[in-house]
Amino acid sequence: MATIIDGRNSAAELNATTARRVAQLKKKGIVPGIAVILVGDDPASVIYTRNKDRKAKKLGIRSILKRFPADARQAEVLATIQEFNNDDRINAILVQSPLPSQLDETTLVQAIDPAKDVDGFHPVNVGKLYGNEEGNYPIPCTPRGIMTMLSKYQVPIAGSNAVIIGRSNLVGKPMLSLLTNANATVTMLNHLTPNPQYYTQNADLLIVGVGQPNFIHAADVKKGATVIDVGINRNSSGHLVGDVDFEDVQKVAAKITPVPGGVGPMTIASLMEQTVDLAEWSE
Ligand SMILES: Nc1nc(=O)c2c([nH]1)NC[C@@H]1CN(c3ccc(C(=O)N[C@@H](CCC(=O)O)C(=O)O)cc3)C=[N+]21
């Protein structure tokens, strides 16, 4: 039976540290602030942004949730980003995705001050991560949370074979950079990869984010591997499930993240951590 990598517990631990850091900053008169921009009323996005807003306030972080109707125009969202860029009380800005089709996400993300880009999606920050640059810059929060959990559970990265399924800008590509920078041998698969099992069966570390329930079974996984499930799907009975057949895969994996209670809670905790980082870096 595999060790379950507990994202809720890891998040609680990280949030406790973040709350202490916020308290330290308050002594110097600094209150970290995050602004989340939500356009439309996609039910999942409404829940996630509400959770972020609540968690921030609980940790003592100033939080603004700015909502726009689904038919918002590009210019008005852009103007709001610029207001937050110029607002000294806000040091972290996030535009929740997905966005309605009339909005151009690339342009909006590029309008965010890179020093306030808490998602790490601005090309300046993407480039720094890709180049393994030294110094302080934000990185995407889901991969950051995954790296924190791998470290906490002492999963070796240097010298390992890591396989990533899914090449999104949110997860797969930043994960590729982080693991490569940490000296893993990284293979990135996509939906056209011939014989994907050839890769997955040799993976010491398997990271799955494709958006398909039960995409990975025990037969796809190397004995003793670590499996990280980034999927968020609703099954036929409305329950939240990942991309990995958890019951099956936990029989062969050494370590595995559940859904819910794995990568998700750590994403929000890492977002809060990085909000405080940005506040400290801007001092
Ligand atoms: N600009 C931007 N940044 C993001 O970081 C971002 C985004 N857009 N768009 C959507 C994805 C998804 N995401 C999640 C955050 C928390 C949970 C989470 O807390 N999940 C809980 C369960 C929550 C539930 O019950 O629905 C869990 O897995 O245990 C999941 C998913 C952030 N994202």
UniProtKB/TrEMBL annotation:
Gene3D superfamilies with a match to the protein in the record: Leucine Dehydrogenase, chain A, domain 1, NAD(P)-binding Rossmann-like Domain
InterPro entries: Aminoacid_DH-like_N_sf, NAD(P)-bd_dom_sf, THF_DH/CycHdrlase, THF_DH/CycHdrlase_cat_dom, THF_DH/CycHdrlase_CS, THF_DH/CycHdrlase_NAD-bd_dom
PROSITE patterns xrefs: THF_DHG_CYH_2
Presence of the UniProt keyword Amino-acid biosynthesis in the record: yes
GO annotation, cellular component aspect: cytosol
Pfam families recorded: THF_DHG_CYH (PF00763), THF_DHG_CYH_C (PF02882)
UniProt binding sites for NADP(+): 166-168, 232
Coiled coil feature spans: none
Protein name in UniProt: Bifunctional protein FolD
Location of the Tetrahydrofolate dehydrogenase/cyclohydrolase catalytic domain: 5-119
